[in-house]
Amino acid sequence: MSLIDRFNIDLGKLHSLVSGVSRHMKRVPYHNFTHAFNIVHMTYIILTKSKLRTILDDVEVLAAMVGALAHDTGHPGLNNVYFQKVKHPLAQTCNDQAVLEMYHGYLL
Q: Cα(19)–Cα(13) distance, rounded to whole angstroms?
């Protein structure tokens, strides 16, 4: 999609970003780096095979690709109900609402 050239992205820094996300992905059955890579690939397919690319500007496309890569960084591999039932501090912080979705927000 020519994003590397368009934004003059340093390949070393891009590699560092991808490696950093990989290091922070937990080794769990589903929300792991393979899942992140699959989502990046599917995002690419959707952007290139649909009309979506024609309505998004390059910054939005770059944001979608980075977001796809990093969307589950650090996901513990457990679900919201688990966090609620064990009264995990994160669930309490989130008032038992969308615990893992809030978790990703707290990483920012």
A: 10
Residue 106, pLDDT score: 60
From the candidates 15, 31, 41, 71, give the one annotated as an active-site residue: 31
Number of domains in the chain: 2
CA distances, 74 to each of 7, 34, 103 (Å): 27, 13, 9
Q: How far apart are CA 54 and CA 104, in angstroms?
A: 29
* DSSP secondary structure letter of residue 57: -
- 31 catalytic, yes or no? yes
Q: Are residues 46 and 12 in the same domain?
A: yes
- Give 105's pLDDT tier (boundaries 50, 70, 90): low
Residues 6+ apart with CB under 8 A from 81: none
Asked if 52 and 96 sit in the same domain, the reply is no
Q: What is the pTM of this model?
A: 0.83
Buried b (16+ CB within 10 A) or exposed e, 28-55: eeebbbebbbebbeebeeebeeeeebee
Residues 21 and 56 in one domain: yes
